[in-house]
Amino acid sequence: MIRHERPAEAVDEDSPPVALHLPDGTTFEGPVIDLRGADVDPAPESIVDAVRAGEPTRPGRPTVHAPPPTRVHAHVARLGPDTDIDRRAALAAVGAARGVETAHDDDLAAARESLRSLSPPTVDAEELRAARRRAAAAGSEAERLRERVATLRGRVTALREEGDADARADAEASLSAATRDLSEASTERVAAAQRLSMLEERARRARDAREERLRLEDRVGNLERAVRHARADAVALEFHDARRRARSLLDGVPGRDAGGDAPSGLRDALAVAAIAPLGAPVVVDPGIAAAAGGLDTLETHLGGPFILR
Known about the structure:
Elements: E1 2-5, E2 19-21, E3 26-29, E4 32-34, H1 44-53, E5 63-65, H2 73-76, E6 78-79, H3 87-97, H4 105-117, H5 125-162, H6 165-249, H7 264-275, E7 282-284, H8 286-292, H9 295-302, E8 306-308
């Protein structure tokens, strides 16, 4: 462990791969940072938060200068007697961090691209309702005027037979006006029907697009699960080997079960950390290092940086 009483920004490019910067300006550096006995305030949880957050962090909080955390740190950023993890999810994260390729990758990429490119048309429900009201009104008006034209045409015919020239002239003028009104109403009826048809077609395409989105989201979800399973399976044998090593490493850890084993979650977490490409550090309870027989043994097992706190 190296302790520097200097501001965080004073750490240069040649610094060790991990540096812990505390709010008071103190900096600890090294692939292994041992805070046992150090007069520092941050609780383990605040350091874990700093590891998972990467840089920068909020003022007044610890900052960990290191390579960015991977998905694995969501599972094993803290290693302590009460650590528990979702084994399959953690192994899938290891596979992702290691760039494991699966038979589902191309299908997943294609499904995600299809989902991103899906652009359903927008439909204003009020606009569609207004178009339906307009079409209905235009249809009713056109039908009313058609009946009026038919009535006036019959009246003109009757008056022609009766020989009443003045009454026939008035009826013919009314028929001419009604015919013009009918022509305008028919034009409006066609325009309203076309507008309604266009909006209903857009609504239909929007429904189809929503159904397609749901189908694609379901497909993406299924493929993501398949990828996670494949990645977890790809590292499972290595994990079990590491877990056997972790079991012997943890002989002195408190909280052992009736069979004399250290907590199962902790063994899983140590094995995951051992096979993961850890760039950012993990935060280890000092009791783990003591049970493992010292920092060197723990460092050999983990194969990556850690902070003892």
